[in-house]
Gamma-glutamyl phosphate reductase
Amino acid sequence: MNKLISLGQRAKEASYDLMNLSTTEKDKALIKMADKLLLHYENILKENKKDLENAIKKGTSKAMLDRLSLDKGRIEDMADGLKQVALLSDPVGEITSMWRRPNGLQIGKQRVPLGVIGIIYEARPNVTCDAAGLCLKTGNAVILRGGSEAINSNKAIVEALSEGIKEAGLPERSVQLVEDTSREVVTEMMKLNNYIDVLIPRGGAGLIQSVVKNATVPVIETGTGNCHVYVDDESDLEMARDIVINAKTSRPSVCNAEEKLLVHEKIANKFLPVIISALKNENVEVRGDERTMKIVDNINEATEEDWGKEYNDYIISVKIVSSIDEAIVHINKYGTGHSEAIVTNNYENSQKFLQRIDAAAVYVNASTRFTDGYEFGFGAEIGISTQKLHARGPMGLNELTTTKYIIYGNGQIR
Amino acid sequence: MNKLISLGQRAKEASYDLMNLSTTEKDKALIKMADKLLLHYENILKENKKDLENAIKKGTSKAMLDRLSLDKGRIEDMADGLKQVALLSDPVGEITSMWRRPNGLQIGKQRVPLGVIGIIYEARPNVTCDAAGLCLKTGNAVILRGGSEAINSNKAIVEALSEGIKEAGLPERSVQLVEDTSREVVTEMMKLNNYIDVLIPRGGAGLIQSVVKNATVPVIETGTGNCHVYVDDESDLEMARDIVINAKTSRPSVCNAEEKLLVHEKIANKFLPVIISALKNENVEVRGDERTMKIVDNINEATEEDWGKEYNDYIISVKIVSSIDEAIVHINKYGTGHSEAIVTNNYENSQKFLQRIDAAAVYVNASTRFTDGYEFGFGAEIGISTQKLHARGPMGLNELTTTKYIIYGNGQIR
């Protein structure tokens, strides 16, 4: 039999066992998994070194090598992550509502595991451990398909985790790695509807779009963030400056970083010179629309292409708008529905922005950088969904569950 | 520009207006839509006659002609349906939870419309009206693509509805019909990710599978139901008989009808002759596994193919199992995750069945036929989801919404 199919079948079988486990059993396994990571850290580092050597041979960029590379500290972080997940409360089993119908049927809606989750991701080996921990905590079996660059590290990590899972008495197939790193196997995985319930791609826009386009298994789209900060005419300009600088520069490579600044025309003359100079001080390349270029010298022109682009870099494009309505239309047109912020002291405008912006997270007077499972208080994050089905915004443990209706009758027929 | 794309763009624009409407505005439009249906009933019947004549020429089956055909009463039912939707409470705007973070950020999760919903369906013209009403109530724009058999009826219905929408002052493009009935346009619609947020196919298994396989737009899979009733050894056999007969024969063509009967071996000798004779009295063809055929004469053999099949007809397959565990494994293996029932008086077994069966609706001592938006008390139904993402089981108004996070800050940066 095809290897991926048999892997899928085993995951499905494991998932039926996993859904019946108590929280205590799952938490014990998470702790064991953490212990085994630490116990086998030398082997993991040895295997990671192979990946690094191969990557260097291929002329991989420094940033990529950094993502790929592990050290003792990073393995400790992974183990700590598992222990923290063990401390989170388990969403599985919760009855979110229950009611009685006139005919006496008692209908409850109960959180249950999704079943088998497929994760398709790129170079970072820590995703292997994080995803395994979150899926196991929520009673899901997981099939991991990491990038070829990290295959040796991933194998060593899964081997360690599996030892912990086995010792805890859980099905060993709860966490499985696809060891075949060919492109064909990814394509096949995307169509494994009989065995995989949900696919979550994690990585660059190319990977995610390829999964969205080719998968027949339901997908949760994550990631792309062309985030805006709009500074309204009635606003605290000092607060606006802090928020823009934080949203743009605190970590430009992530999806909740600001990419665009919209400024109301009434305050443009006052605010733009200040903020653009501050951005330049932080080594941000500033691009502007025509009106912005008339106010501030020495900036590049923002083209039509810029408005729709996620830079993930020290670049920002600035546009002057005539009204909050223009800002809203612009954001809904060019945004990716991730995180959008207004800085304002006008009550009506704050409500309008919250109501009319079509995005996963809409902020008044705060940085877009808070769109994150930990910052939202979920204690975990498997990714940030930018689609509208199932989950929108940061996904914690709840988002790795589905529901089923449980119905108590006493002989009702229709 | 391509016609479907411009239709999609207009739907998207309409959706931004729709999401800001008050419930009162939407309800007024629903009432107007109902009025216009009644006002134009003669035209709708005239156009429906064209469809019927074409269908007869093509040699369409009687059952299909019945689905296609409208009369005054059916149009009144459609109008009543819209008025009932107007009476339901509006899920849009509800803050399902709100909390404050240590840094003072106040984070709320709010129900909002999905945006643009695409419905791909077959012959029944009433779906046109039902879907339009439910989508409008939840502030979504809808693109309807009905079957070619009903194109004239659908055009007339949408024309009437649009007149009502326009008079109520809502965007006319809130409800649009794809008038091109070619297969190519469906394929194109399935990939219109920029303009359609969610696709809901409604119809036979062929249609639904084609959408699931080909769509890049997120899909909610509806419908297929290979439902089981398992009669446990400790059970009230009279209740079991009533439930089996009801689940199988009250409406065999629908997805929540029973297709399979599993019986514990301890009661097989007593129960099977009774139930099989009762089923035959209701003109049900009974197929049985080897053990069943040893107990009851004159039944056909159930093959491996039977266990996975949804008959939607007066046919049932019967299997004897040695334990509840065997029943659970069988159901999880062959079921479609729709509705599954146990008849038992054993407490532990009732809990085991509820816990271990992986389906949208799991029943103890009640007919599977209750899996329905109205029977669950939702007041409406757009379909029954058999997937695990977003919605599972009967979908009412809530399931036509998504959420967004609204965040109130006072200058927080990270």
Notes: Residues 23-39 of chain A form the longest helix (17 residues). Chain A is about 45% helix and 20% strand. Chain A has two domains: 3-221+390-408, 227-370.
